[in-house]
Amino acid sequence: MLDVRRLRLLRELAHHGTIAAVAEALAFSPSAVSQQLSVLEREAGVPLLERTGRRVALTPAGRNLVRHTEAVLELLERADAELAHARRGLAGPLRIGAFPSAVRALVPAALAELSSRHPELEPMVSEVDPAAVAGALRAGELDVALVHEYDLVPGEPEDGIALTGPVFAEPLYLAARSAGALAGHRDSSWIVSPPGTLCHAMVQRVCQSAGFGPRVRHRVDDFAAQLALVAAGQGVALVPHLGTDRCPPGVVLTRLPLYRRTRTAFRAGSAAHPAVAAFSAALHSAVPAELRSA
């Protein structure tokens, strides 16, 4: 009989590509991961891995086993959801991931609503960039998370991860010291989020669509800080609606015909889990009416 815990390791290896990366993602030692995968190969009776330098590739049998593993894990999530429905009331921890502007603008109201309806539930919030959400969900570090995508940077599907439809959509703004079109800032200095984030990719794509590449001066992940730098004459920035609530004097916001859309993400099979469903309902109630209709 194949061990589900070892199958999880193989699944993570398919996503990360190296033993070291799997060990870091799951807080194991590399030797422990390697040992457990060797045991899984013996259980399977066929080679599952091919080592090429530091990277490890899956054999055809290994890839097929990962495909079956995704289905098995989804069924286990559904079983856990059914058991949760059989219990009386919601209790215990619910690990929630969210990006910073949502943590500030929406999550407090959602948690207040959640606590009023389910006082025994213990929500635990962590700031997580959407790019890191899938790995955190698969590793069990999160149960549900808010992720976003932009019109020019659509979200990529992830094995083992399910998404709701957009919970809300918010417009993007060009933040500058004076009003003007995006194309007029070809030679301006730009304030962007750090590389590797969706927000950084968004600025690159939006500027490219206007026919130029941004001349990046500052890399700052907090939208309030970006706006403060704009006010100080340090450049221009692109900021979504939730990031404009602390806009300082001297900054002009020009609305663009582009949107950022937020969804909830969770492990495939867990959509019906009552705690996940309760948080989703509380989040919907916390979204301002003007964003729900955007």
- Beta-strand percent range: 15-25%
Q: Give the class from helix and strand content and strand pairing.
A: alpha/beta
User: Do you know the CATH architecture of the largest domain?
Assistant: 3-Layer(aba) Sandwich
Sheet with the most strands, sense and barrel status: 7 strands, mixed
Query: Number of folding domains?
Result: 3
H/I helix tally = 11
Q: What is the count of β-strands?
A: 11
CATH C-level category of the largest domain:
Alpha Beta
How would you sum up this structure in a few lines?
With 294 residues, the chain is an alpha/beta fold.
What does this structure look like?
- Pfam families: HTH_1 (PF00126), LysR_substrate (PF03466).
- Belongs to the LysR transcriptional regulatory family.
- InterPro entries: LysR_HTH_N (IPR000847), LysR_subst-bd (IPR005119), WH-like_DNA-bd_sf (IPR036388), WH_DNA-bd_sf (IPR036390).
- Keywords: DNA-binding, Transcription, Transcription regulation.
- This is LysR substrate-binding domain-containing protein.
- The protein is of the alpha/beta class.
- It folds into 3 domains: 80 residues, Arc Repressor Mutant, subunit A; 110 residues, D-Maltodextrin-Binding Protein, domain 2 (3-Layer(aba) Sandwich); 91 residues, D-Maltodextrin-Binding Protein, domain 2, CATH 3.40.190.
- The strands form 3 sheets. Strands 3, 4, 5, 6, 7, 10 and 11 form a 7-stranded mixed beta sheet that branches. Strands 1-2 form a two-stranded antiparallel sheet. A two-stranded parallel ribbon has the order 8-9.
- α8 links the parallel β8 and β9.
- The chain starts with a helix and ends with a helix.
- The model has no long low-confidence stretch (mean pLDDT 91).
